[in-house]
Design brief:
Largest sheet: 2 strands, antiparallel
Strand content: under 5%
Oligomer: single chain
Distance between the termini: 56 Å
Number of helices: 7
Number of domains: 2
Structural class: mainly alpha
Length: about 160
């Protein structure tokens, strides 16, 4: 079982790497390096190479082309990792922003009046109430930035 498990894990790893490299253009880069060929025999240039020519072809032509592709993949991966790190920092900062405010408390009289005295009763017609709250009040066009995505919007747009 351990031998099978090892083979399976290796195949899974290779398959994930293949998927990650699929868009790198490696096959195209190598194909562009292959000399000669015809429509009936596109790889004829490889077929007719001697062992020495194949060594020189691989080290002098194919290797630099593959290296350029892998450098592009490396740059893309590093950019994605940098963006992920920046995003994590931004979302951590934004995620805690809701806890930065200072609470204010009322007296016993405010407690007995309830929240309805402060903000009013809800509209029993939900859609009309939402439209009035988001589109018709004075702050409907006031811009704000959402904490989770950092986008700027207005209540009316939402």
């Amino acid at each position: 079982f351990e031998a099978f498990k090892g083979l399976f894990e290796r195949e899974l790893e290779v398959s994930r790497k293949q998927h990650g490299l699929a868009g790198a253009g490696l096959v195209r880069a190598v194909a562009e390096c292959v000399p000669g060929g015809r429509s009936e025999a596109p790889l004829e240039g490889l077929e007719t190479m001697s062992c020495g020519e194949m060594d020189a072809f691989c080290s002098g032509t194919v290797l630099p082309a593959v290296k350029r592709c892998l450098e592009r993949v490396q740059e893309r991966l590093r950019n994605e990792a940098r963006k992920r790190r920046e995003s994590e920092v931004t979302s951590k900062e934004a995620g805690n922003a809701k806890y930065r405010g200072v609470a204010t408390f009322g007296g016993l009289q405010d407690f007995y009046k309830g929240i309805a005295a402060k903000i009013g009763l809800p509209n029993p017609r939900l859609m009309e109430g939402m439209e009035a709250e988001h589109c018709q009040r004075g702050d409907a066009e006031a811009e704000f930035s959402s904490g989770n995505y950092g986008t700027t919007t207005t209540p009316a747009a939402e």
